[in-house]
Amino acid sequence: xxxxxxxxxxxxxxLRDALLIxxxxxRSFITWHTVTAQQQGPPLLGPAQPLTTAxxxxxxxxxxxxxxxEVLPESVLAKTDRMIAWWTPRCVRxxxxxxxxxxxxxxxGKVFPQPALVWRVAQGDLKIRALCENKRPNAKTPLAxxxxxxxxxxxxxxxxxxxxxxxxxxxxxxxxxxxxxESAFTHANVGRLTRHEGGxxxxxxxxxxxxxxxxxxxxxxxxxxxxxxxxxx
Length: 233
Description:
- By secondary structure, the chain is an alpha+beta fold.
- The protein has two domains: 2-63, no CATH class; 76-230, no CATH class.
- It contains four helices and 15 strands.
- The protein has helices at 53-63, 173-182, 199-207, 226-230; strands spanning 2-6, 10-14, 17-24, 27-36, 44-45, 76-79, 83-88, 91-94, 96-97, 111-114, 117-122, 125-130, 142-144, 184-185, 221-225.
- The strands form six sheets. A four-stranded antiparallel beta sheet has the order 6-7-11-12. A three-stranded antiparallel beta sheet has the order 3-4-5, with no helix packed on it.
- A hairpin with a 3-residue loop joins strand 1 (2-6) and strand 2 (10-14).
- It starts with a strand and ends with a helix.
């Protein structure tokens, strides 16, 4: 059996192996069979063979497209084939606000000091948390609410019209950050984003045009560690 699939270019795949899964309630085991093509009739399965580590590793590499190893910068905190997490120190960035009620309209397009942040991308979702200290976090570092509109309780960014990369490579980090800051902050998804006595609008109004460090006293600390955030808990 041959299958033609277009993936940017023409590839010709041939049926070479088959995995059979046997189940009984919640228990299962898998056998591996070589496949022999016939000129006439269906392919033939060879005798069952036990799965080997080498076969599983080769299969995983082929499914991932044989991605090349990447050199990880110090900003990267964790990475798998489908997830990447990194941190950014405090900085100054331009932000854009667009709200149907006109809230924060006077802040649109101005520059603001930003807290140190932790970013996590997995399966096309971007999540962000804030850091109370301006240094690289470790597994036990407690996190805080990132004080932005468009974020849900678990830190997930409502992407909306945000331009987001399709990959989770090291090379995509800059594009994820740029897409976040250049998109319009449009609405609040949670009740409380900051400890600032005036709330979200007053916090960012106070910071507009400033180049001083972000006031960490305004962050709401969470009972969540970096390890839990990276693991999706």
